[in-house]
């Protein structure tokens, strides 16, 4: 097939799409800019980041912001645009449109719930690359979109080893917000890590139905501590309350998002913390060179210890982690980097004891991302 | 600890911030003014207390500053409503959003900063009493202050001349004028005092209960407090009971989950609000008939 024919065909498809979209101006624009959409984002002058919370929350959003500042440093010619407190609704699409108006042809939509808006913007602007952090595009991935994330459950598995080795009551507590796949994988990996060194360890879960409501976190932490849980961890956007509740009660803590050992000098074990800079840099390089289409980022990309640039790393250890536990964690991290390694190597049983992942099976990152059940040893009911 | 003791103790600890605010709102409403900005007073109280406690290292200074901040926002409400004749609802909500914006802006610097908050202090002897000890006497000093405030506010409202003035401003404003007192200043004072208590409630949340500052951390507790005042038919004692009941409904979910009961989290989350609606439905007209007369005039179409 000749080039001109395929271009014509593309134009015809685009016009049909434009008609179908009933006069959507940006869709019509795409007919004239097939050259751009062949290499969306190429040579962009600006990069946009939208965040769901404040850039200084000592958590998820601060990590994103710090990653964006790495881009600013690495690419001095690029204009780095950031927007905080962008809700997970149409406001997100509007904010991204404004960034596009300012010349951004690459946008990072960094909250789980920003996906719908991101897909909408990607559909309206074929010459702009929109990548989304943490969610998954179902079905065919458009040429100018993708999702990316690290495998946070890998460091949580390692942290689980520290918790399982350190607990005296064999009861670990997990405060979480909502039963999204990312959280489920974290909780399951944490429990599997603990079990790997302490078969009696169980993880008791309490949900707060909020990413940051310190009052509810305190209630959750207090109820767990009263049940003789002696290691607390969490999946929350703001983390200080749970960590301090544990420290005050003389319990131990596994952190999340950021190194909070200063809040819990006695009870801090370790934690899963972020480092987005290297991954963001890779994505920006790929897009600038015009190589985005068909690249690993033009998909639901997951990166972990096997691939090397996992944006999640293990935080430093506290005083309660024994030399023996540290050695086990070190060995487990190396094992996770091999083809045979995974927190979810079969057999994996669900809470009822049914084998869900068969013995010997090593699930892929994509499969881990879609976990929808609690493993045996986790206490609590998943809301469906 | 048994489930009942755990939930009740959790209810007292978690309900106290709401109780401070509701107690304050009771005084304001008794004088005839509704302050929907209570949530805002709690927010500025929470942040100011956190900031002052962090910088001074003294939680009592923090609590005091929180009360002053909450009272200042309420004084603004009172000024606009009482002296400028503005709509109570519009002003209250506007002040809430102002407080949200200001605390997010100025609070950013304090997110994640460690605070020297109130520590739990077990009351000697009393804290060892089975059941009652862990429920009421293993908490922080600011919470114990609230035990004193409830009878104090009740006494002031119903047994002192000042309380009579406040209640008269809310029931028969005209007769207050006849006796040479200023309705406006009485209301101004009552609403400002109410805001101070709401600020203390915010302080309890940020430097005694959760030991953290985060934007919008009050998360609707101020609105619950306003609803609670109606729920409690403007009585300080009932406010106390209602706040604890609400706190218990919040504590029930985590307590059940921590014991491995297989309940859906979203069903548990709904309990406090289902409970509130149920009580309001049962009390219904009774609450309206015992409402301060001047307050009823605020609701133009309210049935009497």
Radius of gyration of chain A: 22 Å
The count of domains of chain A is 2
* Amino-to-carboxy terminus distance of chain A: 49 Å
CATH topology group of the largest domain in chain A? Rossmann fold
Count of helical segments of chain A? Answer: 13
CATH class wording of the largest domain in chain A: Alpha Beta
CATH architecture title of the largest domain in chain A: 3-Layer(aba) Sandwich
How would you characterize the largest beta sheet of chain B? Answer: 2 strands, antiparallel
CATH topology of chain B: ABC transporter involved in vitamin B12 uptake, BtuC
Q: Report Rg of chain B.
A: 19 Å
Strand content of chain A: 15-25%
CATH architecture of chain B: Orthogonal Bundle
Q: Provide the succession of SSEs of chain B.
A: HHHHEHEHHHHHHHHH
Q: Estimate percent helicity of chain A.
A: 25-40%
**Strand adjacency order, main sheet of chain A:** 12-10-9-8-6-7-15
Task: Please state the overall shape of chain B, judged from the principal axes of the Cα atoms.
Answer: globular
Transmembrane segments (chain B): 60-82, 89-111, 142-158, 188-210, 216-234, 241-258, 270-288
Subcellular location (chain B): Cell membrane
Organism (chain B): Nocardioides pocheonensis
Keywords (chain B): Cell membrane, Membrane, Transmembrane, Transmembrane helix
